[in-house]
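Attaching the record inline, Q. Sequence:
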Amino acid sequence: MRKNKMKFLHLAALFFLFASTAFATELDSLNRDPKYVESIKGRSQKIVDKLGLKSVSVALDVRNIIANKYFQLSDIYDKRDAAVKKVKDSGISGSQKSDALSAIDHEKDATLYRSHFAFPADLSMYLNDAQVEAVKDGMTYGVVKVTYDATLDMIPSLKKDEKKQIHAWLVEAREFAMDAENSNKKHEAFGKYKGRINNYLSKRGYDLTNERAEWAKRLKAKGVKQ
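Structure, as predicted:
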């Protein structure tokens, strides 16, 4: 009986060792510029370091998932750029050119859509919901929190439902920003939603020009530079 139990435990240990190795996330670095790979690994590691993961193997898997997401985005946009160049170099014009460029854009969007939902699903194998959110914030420069906190600080009289709506829009903006091709495009994604928030607050009766002026005064009084 004791021998059977020990044999079972030994087999179980071997199974879990094999499973952890078999399902480890490999870095998609083949045929990529080594300097670019190291840059992406470093960027991804900074995000992982803030998660406080205790397992070295889990941290490595998460780092590789994040890095692979960056590689995937680069591939998607490189493929789009190459296709656009091919169309422009072909000499076609008018509606034919417009249709071809539109088809390329649709294909890019479809690929982004599929990869967008696969990413958090991959992360969820290793992280809880709060940690997945932290990864998203890390990939978008923490703009959600910075903008939300600043808006609440600028307009202390915001109601609960208004705060909820503002936060929801910023989180939605983050989803688009995550798939943007560069930092400028990521900030553009947030910019569109900031405009929506400003319109929303204006319709709710807030004088944003005055709110900003009063906020500036408060910050100056605190010695905070804007």
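The longest helix spans residues 56-90. The mean pLDDT is 90.

More tomorrow.
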